[in-house]
Each structure stands twice: as C-alpha cells, then as structure tokens.
Design goal:
Nuclear Transport Factor 2, Chain: A, alpha+beta, two-stranded antiparallel ribbon, 47% helix
Length: 205
Amino acid sequence: MFTKLKTIDTAFRHVKVFTIVVVAACCLISIAALYKSFSLVTGMQQKIYILANGKALEAYAAERHDNIPVEARDHVKSFHKLFFTLDPDDKVIKDNVGKALYLADNSAKSVYDDLMENGYYAGVISGNISQTITVDSVKVDINPYPYRFRCYATMRIIRPTSVLIRSLVTEGSLRNVTRSDNNPHGLLIERWTTVENRDIKSENR
C-alpha cells in the first residue's frame, strides 16, 4: 500500500513539474508574441504610403533634424530652378519667379526688382531668349542656425544665334518656417547673394 502511495506521489510531482513547465513556456511564448506584435505595429507606424501617378510609394517617418540636409538641398535647387528658368513669355516669367519668391525673403525680391528695373526680363521677351539652369551641387552646413548653404550651378542662355554658358555660385542661409502648399519644405532662404556669375563659353547655333 505504501508503495502505491509513493508511486502516486511521484507521479503527482511529475505532473506538477510538467504543468509548471508548460505554463512557463506558454507565458514566455505569449510575452514573445506580444513583444513581436508591438515591434511590428511600431514599425508600421513609421511607414507612410504616398500615392503618386496611381502607384503607392513607401516612405518612412523620421525626425525633422535627420531630413534637414536633404530638404535643404532640394529647397535651394527648387528656388534656383524657378528663379532662373526663363522663357520669352511674360506670364511664364511671372509665374516662375512668383513661386520662387515664396521660398526666399526680401533679398531675392530685391534681386528680382533690380533685374526688372534694368530691363532684363523685357530683354528676354523681346530677344526671344530662353534661360535654363542646372544645379550642379548644393553644400549645406546644418551645424549653425540658420543653416548656411552654397549653391553651384550652370546657366544656359539660348539666343536666336548663340548659346551662352555661365557659371553661377550663390550663398545664403535657411531658417525654419511653417510648411505650406507654396513652401512644402518649411524653409526660407535669407540673405541670398551671388558670389560668382561669369561667362564660361559661347557657342554659335
């Protein structure tokens, strides 16, 4: 009889240990599943999908400071392309320059006013001149604030009989402003000045 009780007691201990192991394993699996689920949800929240031309493009959310160099370079490129892309059409000039002036302060407006006063845009229209710009590079220093930048570009001035290639170097600073449809990067160019604007070569057409 005592042997049977001892056997039952041993079996009970085995069942008890087995049950504890199973419960502990279930707890560990549940904790691991919850952690993995939380990680996946957090990761999904960092993803943004943008619909462009009927296609869903994946983007990632990041801190503003991490994207400043990229946004600053694109902001400067956009400004220069809008400001310096000209065609012999008064409406095109006003539209492009108008969009560019949303991206900069009065330093750009002063340059525009000077060019207007000196008859530069009238000459572009009357001379059937087209002007394009290629931004070669934009150097941005985000250590100081406002951020400093220098833009290196090449201008192409197309006249009826010739094409003039010019080198353009400008610099200025950038400060944060509220994002809007007119200023999607939320940056404003300040103290914009031209460092260099010289002829490189002229080609006959």
